[in-house]
Write a structure and sequence with these properties.
The protein is mainly alpha-helical. Helices cover 70% and strands 0% of the residues. It has helices at 3-20, 26-53, 57-76, 84-107, 111-132, 159-170. Helix 2 (26-53) packs antiparallel against helix 3 (57-76), helix 2 (26-53) packs across helix 4 and helix 5 (111-132) crosses helix 6 (159-170). The longest helix has 28 residues, at 26-53. Mean pLDDT is 77; it is low at 140-153 and 169-176.
Length: 176
């Protein structure tokens, strides 16, 4: 059996077990991840507004938003090691920014550019979930072909493509 199929089956089994143990509500967690993206964006806007206007009140508001964001991020990222907390935050931030730039490109009629940016944004978003659902075993990462998901992968589609397929099959936000 294809190793990607095995990974998908393992992921689905893991999610089913988590649902049975009431450890994860993926629909709510996906909504929360989008809220977190927006909170990160608000932090950035308060920073730039504070610097541009020279008014410290914006830094105080930035700190309040940051506190809320940190509390909410703990609801998704319960256990982490090393830099996973910061990596996760930056994956969400980068995904949100790429979505915004893609949306601007779309409104200017640059559909291909928009599609490319949307695919990259979704890839980063899937990487966020892959890391935080322990789908990606980061302990045994070694240098492998840039398009391979692990050293046993002999197909040549990209890492984000494979991870995206795993996440799509496991996370259906429309199931209540």
């Amino acid at each position: 059996m294809d190793k990607t199929v095995l990974k998908i089956e393992e992921l689905i089994e893991k999610i089913d077990q988590m649902k049975k143990q009431e450890k994860m509500d993926l629909s709510s967690d996906q909504d929360l991840s989008i809220a977190l993206m927006n909170l990160i964006s608000i932090e950035e806007h308060f920073f730039f507004t504070g610097v541009k206007t020279g008014k410290d009140k914006y830094f105080g508001m930035l700190n309040e938003i940051r506190s809320i964001r940190k509390d909410l991020l703990k609801k998704i990222i319960k256990d982490y090691e090393g830099e996973v907390w910061c990596i996760s935050k930056h994956l969400l931030a980068a995904s949100m920014r790429l979505m915004e730039v893609g949306t601007k490109q779309l409104s200017m009629g640059n559909n291909e550019e928009a599609k490319d940016l949307f695919e990259k944004a979704y890839g980063l978003y899937c990487l966020f979930w892959g890391i935080n659902m322990d789908v990606i075993d980061t302990s045994q990462i070694t240098h492998i072909d840039e398009n391979a998901i692990n050293k046993h992968d002999d197909t040549k589609s990209g890492f984000f493509d494979k991870l995206g397929e795993l996440i799509k099959k496991a996370v259906d936000c429309c199931i209540e």
